[in-house]
């Protein structure tokens, strides 16, 4: 079953809860949480302000042209969980031919 859209399974943010997002941390592959404008990794504790792309695989890009402007990595539901990789969300490569990062993604 695919993960719910951003924030759908969130605790009450007014009460201090964090919303689970369908994104994975680019540093440790942990789940990205959101509370208001703050996003953080549930595993390594990395934090940023703004969109999940500030911490997740969707924000990864290559420095070399011409690939720098292409979105090569994305957070996606794990298509085939195994005992070795049980994560619901993984960082996938390819399958998205966009040549310009989506607005507000934080991708340079």
How would you sum up this structure, described in words?
The chain is an all-beta fold and about 110 residues long. It has one domain. The chain is about 0% helix and about 25% strand. The protein has no helices and 6 strands. The strands form 2 sheets. Strands 1-2-3-4 form a 4-stranded antiparallel beta sheet, with no helix packed on it. A two-stranded antiparallel ribbon has the order 5-6. The termini are far apart. About 30% of the residues are buried.
Mean pLDDT comes to 76
How many structurally independent domains? 1
Q: How far apart are the termini?
A: 32 Å
- Content of β-strand: 25-35%
Q: How many separate helices?
A: 0
Low-confidence stretches: 97-103
How many distinct beta strands?
Answer: 6
> Compute the gyration radius: what is it?
14 Å
Order of helices and strands: EEEEEE
Structural class: mainly beta
Largest sheet: 4 strands, antiparallel
- Considering DSSP H and I runs of 4 or more, what fraction of the residues is helical? under 10%
Shape: flat
* Oligomeric state: single chain
Major beta sheet, strand line-up? 1-2-3-4
């Amino acid at each position: 079953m695919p993960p719910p859209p951003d924030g759908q399974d969130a605790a009450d943010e007014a009460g201090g809860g964090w919303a689970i997002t369908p994104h994975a941390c680019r540093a440790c592959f942990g789940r990205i949480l959101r509370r208001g404008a703050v996003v953080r990794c549930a595993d390594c504790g990395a934090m940023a302000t703004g969109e999940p792309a500030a911490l997740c695989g969707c924000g990864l890009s290559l420095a070399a042209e011409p690939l720098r402007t292409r979105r090569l990595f994305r957070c996606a539901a794990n298509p085939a969980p195994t005992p070795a990789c049980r994560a619901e969300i993984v960082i996938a490569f390819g399958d998205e031919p966009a040549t310009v990062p989506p607005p507000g993604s934080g991708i340079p």
